[in-house]
């Protein structure tokens, strides 16, 4: 009844998604069982040969070695098979069939090759077969049917053989063998449960890893879409800034220039203008000049024409000069890039990042000196902005802060990076690296 329940449980509980992994583990343990079979069969032959000089013993030994050789070939074939074919139930059937044959050959010993006249040799035979069954608990318990297929045909015959003797000693041996068999099956149950728990945990871990991988992939896709959207918005903003700057420079600038010229003509004639009106015209002329200068400055900051016409290096020089004049901060520039070697995207990106960095210096740093380095080195264009101010505020360095995010996203879209770090003894360093072949 024990074995029937055991086999029924195996048939119903192990034909699921764990089966291929159980078979994989069995084949990984199989070399140990095959080595034990070869070694123990040779020991049995050597020990029994003095009392059983029978050709059947040699035939039994040869059959066991032949079966072991065939199983080695099956093992090599399994190991050389691709992962998809290893999931076929064919491999499990082959292993269980090999277990049945191997167990049956061990079971033939007490049936046909039992030393009836030598009790020590009988005990030895039972000890060896029991040892093989005990070893199979650790090897075949992953799949309960595999253990039963080996243990039952191997150990039941020796138990029955002891029962055929009427003396108490042999019956006691039969009882011990029966108890041993029950204990082995109980150990197999426990081992199987442990293996099953490990397999379930592995499946759960793999499922969790797969879900995390899918979520990570989706997150990466969303991040990539957001980068593309950000890049598109940057491009749109640059184009719009370029258009607005052009309109301000061409239309509003021309209108203000014409107005200023008209006021100048009014100031020159006629000669007898009232003093108050003449003073008003002079004030208006000065105001128009100031507004015209502001318009040109705003236009240049929106999209400096020098960037499009003369390139990044000239635009940076203009920006540094304007910053120096506007803030009064000492600003040193060291520039060394090849004229025309950078694409428009890189030039605009570096200009905007430098513009943002200088704006931060003016707003937060309270610096007296700023050093800017713009160089091209080892396939990269590098920008470094270092000030001696009080350091950038901690809340500005938070990832969601627009200023930092804007600079980093601009560089990231061109496979570059922006690093912000403290300077020694005080101040802040903004470092930018962008590949010169980025597009």
Strand order of the largest sheet: 1-2-3-5-4
Q: How many separate helices?
A: 13
Biggest beta-sheet profile: 5 strands, mixed
Distance separating the two termini: 75 Å
Q: Helical percent range?
A: over 70%
Order of helices and strands: HHHHHHHHHHHEHEEHEE
* Uncertain segments: 1-15
Write down the overall mean pLDDT. 82
How many discrete domains?
3
Q: Tell me what portion of residues adopts beta-strand conformation.
A: 5-15%
Q: What is the number of E strands?
A: 5
What is the radius of gyration? 45 Å
Gross morphology is rod-shaped
Q: Structural class, from secondary structure content?
A: alpha+beta
Question: Can you describe what's shown?
Answer:
By secondary structure, this protein is α+β, with helices and mostly antiparallel strands. It folds into three domains: 2-213, no CATH class; 222-297, no CATH class; 306-435, Histidine kinase-like ATPase, C-terminal domain (Heat Shock Protein 90), CATH 3.30.565.10. Helix content is 73%, strand content 9%. It has helices spanning 2-13, 19-48, 55-79, 83-86, 89-112, 119-140, 144-163, 168-268, 275-302, 305-310, 312-327, 344-365, 402-412; strands at residues 330-336, 369-377, 380-387, 417-422, 428-435. Strands 1-2-3-5-4 form a five-stranded mixed beta sheet, with helices on one face. A hairpin with a 2-residue loop joins strand 2 (369-377) and strand 3 (380-387). Helix 2 runs parallel beside helix 5 (89-112) and helix 6 packs antiparallel against helix 7.
């Amino acid at each position: 009844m024990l074995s029937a329940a055991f086999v029924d449980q195996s048939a119903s509980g192990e034909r699921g998604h764990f089966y291929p992994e159980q078979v994989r583990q069995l084949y990984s343990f199989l070399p140990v069982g095959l080595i034990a079979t070869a070694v123990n069969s040779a020991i049995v032959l050597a020990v029994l040969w003095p009392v059983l000089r029978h050709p059947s013993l040699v035939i039994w030994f040869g059959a066991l070695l032949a079966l072991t050789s065939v199983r080695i070939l099956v093992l090599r074939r399994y190991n050389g098979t691709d992962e998809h074919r290893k999931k076929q139930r064919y491999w499990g059937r082959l292993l269980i069939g090999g277990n049945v044959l191997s167990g049956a050959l061990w079971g033939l010993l007490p049936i046909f090759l039992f030393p009836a006249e030598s009790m020590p040799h009988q005990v030895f035979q039972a000890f060896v077969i029991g040892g093989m069954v005990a070893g199979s608990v650790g090897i075949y318990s992953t799949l309960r049917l595999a253990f039963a297929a080996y243990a039952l045909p191997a150990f039941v015959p020796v138990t029955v053989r002891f029962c055929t003797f009427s003396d108490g000693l042999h019956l006691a041996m039969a009882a011990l063998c029966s108890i041993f068999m029950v204990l082995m099956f109980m150990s197999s149950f426990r081992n199987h449960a442990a293996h099953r728990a490990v397999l379930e945990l592995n499946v759960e871990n793999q499922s969790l890893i797969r879900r995390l991988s899918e979520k990570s992939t989706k997150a990466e896709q969303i991040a990539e879409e957001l980068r593309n959207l950000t890049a598109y918005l940057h491009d749109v903003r640059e184009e719009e800034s370029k258009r607005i700057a052009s309109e301000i420079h061409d239309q509003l600038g021309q209108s203000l220039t014409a107005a200023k010229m008209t006021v100048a003509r009014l100031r020159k004639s006629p000669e007898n203008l009232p003093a108050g009106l003449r003073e008003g015209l002079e004030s208006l002329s000065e105001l128009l000049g100031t507004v015209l200068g502001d318009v040109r400055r705003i236009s240049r900051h929106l999209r400096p024409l020098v960037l499009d016409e003369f390139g990044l290096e000239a635009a940076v020089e203009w920006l540094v000069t304007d910053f120096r004049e506007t803030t009064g901060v000492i600003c040193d520039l060291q520039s060394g890039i090849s004229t025309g070697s950078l694409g428009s995207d890189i030039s605009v990106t570096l200009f905007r990042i430098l513009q943002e960095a200088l704006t931060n210096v003016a707003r937060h740093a309270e610096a007296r000196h700023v050093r800017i380095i713009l160089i091209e080195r080892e396939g990269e264009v590098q920008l470094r902005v270092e000030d001696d101010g009080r350091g950038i505020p901690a809340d500005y360095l938070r990832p969601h802060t627009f200023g930092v995010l804007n600079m980093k996203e601009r560089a990231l879209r061109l496979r570059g990076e922006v690093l912000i770090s403290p300077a020694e003894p005080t101040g802040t360093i903004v470092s930018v690296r962008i590949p010169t072949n980025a597009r």
